[in-house]
Design goal:
The chain has about 525 residues and is of the alpha/beta class. About 50% of the residues lie in helices and about 10% in strands. It has 14 helices and 12 strands. The strands form 3 sheets. The chain has a 7-stranded mixed β-sheet with strand order 7-8-9-6-10-11-12. It has a 3-stranded antiparallel β-sheet with strand order 2-1-5, with no helix packed on it. The longest helix has about 55 residues. It is rod-shaped and about 155 Å long. The structure holds guanosine-5'-triphosphate, magnesium ion and zinc ion (ZN) (2 copies). The site of one zinc ion has 8 residues, from loops.
């Protein structure tokens, strides 16, 4: 019995010793292994979730197009980056939790439930190791996610700051260069053109392509076509439309400052003819300086090609129709690199007489330079002096409406539209000079502005009109104009002089005297 007791004691000691060694091994190895395992698994789960979200998704644009008004993809840092961040965080968290749970289950089933009842210490160590691993993994995963979140947030902040800076710089550059966009059809000043997507077969329109929600330097249309956002990158090369009336804007609009030039005067005073010769004069001056003039819209090409041949053949220009005028848009450049969009507004005198339409003539409020056309033949004081022999011939060209009231009212209308007086300029073109220059009544009048002004005031009793003009405009200049071209198609020098004054005052300088 005694020996039997001793053996069982020995057995008991051996078991206790074995358990101790096992405990020691577990504490020494299992817990560190669990810790390392937890960390490695957390890192793997984090990397897997990041890889799945950022890399394995299809190439950017990785999201659906924006459901907002613009048919384009949202720029990555303006939205999707935060969605991806949310996805990485929640996926990593869910994966880690799932993995921790799965480990717990396995240990419970595989080890703890099949182990002998009495080995509480071993079970304790295993549970401890599991928790240590889970805790270490959770800590490392949390750390990785915090670093990830901070990095993404910092990148988003930097990218957004860059995009908005780009937008401010772009707007600033346009301001400094005085670049504006005016619709030639409805005469609205357009803050930014609507552009047609240049992608083949794509008819989508993009409202505001400036750097912002949809891209920094480029935006991606729903069809996948990349579109430049900045004038510097050539956004003006896309086809632009007016956001107010949906009509096409002038070609390359938005790439240079504009000159708005309204021609105002009574019916048959000579506005259309003067406008046509000014187009020719601008072309001559630009070409002579090393630049040139392009007609900037298909409509301009069509309408000017209808009118200009009459001028070359010395025929009469037809009366202008009474619709709201559509601009003749030209893109003029000089040899010195200056470029301007010139919008010429030629309206029927009859329409100008209608006071109730005043609010429709928005271009009057946008222009800084005006051409008032004054037919001397329409003034009774002048007509009386025309020799009877000439009257018959001249009466076919004569405007029947004296200009005083119309021009006075028009300048008051311009004033009311808020032009800053000191900056606006008016050229008074005393028209049809080729027809009347030889008449005795003009014998003593030179072609200088002061001389013409004195003649209008003293001989033709237009003192009141001249006073109103001097009051309403910062700069008033008087010209005699002969809206004719010679056999070689060259415009009369009087119109060249008018063109120089009109366009140089708006920043188109042609250099030395172009003959
Ligand atoms: N010879 C000559 N004819 C001119 C000149 N200016 C105008 N005319 C003629 O005068 C007539 C009226 O000229 P337009 O330019 O059509 O007049 P308008 O002011 O545009 O007239 P509406 O459009 O009806 O308001 C036409 O027969 C022109 O050919 C000019 O400087 N010289
Ligand atoms: Mg006309
Ligand atoms: Zn418009
Ligand atoms: Zn498109």
């Amino acid at each position: 019995v005694a020996s039997g007791d001793g053996r069982s004691n020995q057995n008991g000691c051996a078991v206790a010793f074995g358990v101790l060694i096992a405990l020691f091994c577990m504490v020494e190895y299992v817990i560190p292994i669990a810790l390392v395992g937890g960390v490695v698994i957390a890192v793997i789960l984090y990397l897997r979730s990041t890889f799945r979200t950022l890399v394995r998704e299809p190439e950017p644009p990785s999201q659906a197009p924006d459901s907002g008004p613009q048919p384009a993809y949202v720029q990555y840092f303006m939205g999707p980056a935060l969605d991806d961040l949310r996805a990485v965080v929640s996926n990593t968290r869910d994966d880690c939790a799932a993995f921790g749970k799965a480990c717990g289950k396995r240990i419970r089933r595989g080890f703890l439930q099949s182990w002998p009842e009495g080995d509480m210490a071993l079970r304790g160590v295993l549970v401890l190791a599991l928790w240590a691993g889970v805790a270490a993994g959770a800590a490392v995963a949390t750390l990785a996610l915090v670093v990830h979140t901070l990095t993404v947030l910092a990148s988003v902040a930097v990218a957004r700051a860059l995009i908005w800076t780009l937008r401010v710089v772009d707007t600033g550059l346009l301001r400094v260069e005085g670049i504006t966009i005016t619709c030639g059809t409805c005469h609205h000043r357009v803050p930014y053109a609507v552009y047609a997507c240049p992608g083949p077969g794509c008819r989508r329109r993009h409202g505001d392509v400036r750097p912002g929600r949809y891209g920094a330097f480029r935006r991606v249309c729903t069809c996948g076509t990349r579109m430049p956002t900045l004038v510097l990158l050539g956004s003006f090369r896309m086809r632009g439309f007016c956001p107010y009336c949906d009509h096409p804007l002038a070609d390359r609009t938005g790439s240079a400052a504009e000159i708005i030039l309204p021609f105002l005067g009574p019916t048959a005073s000579g506005k259309t003819r003067l406008m046509l010769t000014l187009v020719t004069a601008l072309d001559e001056l630009s070409t002579a300086s090393g630049g040139g003039v392009e007609f900037a819209s298909a409509e301009t090409v069509q309408r000017l090609n209808e009118l200009l041949p009459a001028l070359a053949r010395g025929l009469s220009t037809p009366p202008t129709n009474k619709e709201l005028p559509r601009a003749y848009s030209l893109n003029a450049t000089t040899g010195r690199g200056a470029q301007r969009f010139v919008h010429l507004f030629d309206m029927a005198g009859e329409r100008l007489n209608r006071q109730d339409d005043a609010h429709e003539l928005r271009f009057l409020g946008l222009a800084r330079t005006f051409v008032f056309v004054l037919d001397p033949l329409s003034l009774d004081g002048f007509w009386q002096e025309v020799p009877v022999a000439d009257r018959r011939r001249l009466s076919t060209f004569r405007s029947r409406q004296p200009p005083q009231n119309l021009l006075t009212e028009t300048s008051e209308r311009i004033e009311a539209l808020g032009r800053r007086r000191r900056r606006s300029r008016v050229a008074v073109a005393v028209s049809k000079n080729d027809l009347v220059a030889h008449l005795p009544t003009l014998a003593d009048v030179s072609t200088g502005s002061a001389s013409i002004e004195a003649w209008l005031v003293d001989c033709l009793h237009l003192g009141n009109l001249v006073r109103v003009l001097r009051h309403e405009f910062g700069d008033v200049r008087f010209f005699f104009t002969a809206a004719v071209v010679d056999a070689g198609g060259r415009v009369d020098p009087s119109v060249l002089a008018l063109a120089r004054w009109l366009f140089q005052g708006e920043g188109l300088s042609f250099g030395g005297e172009a003959s």
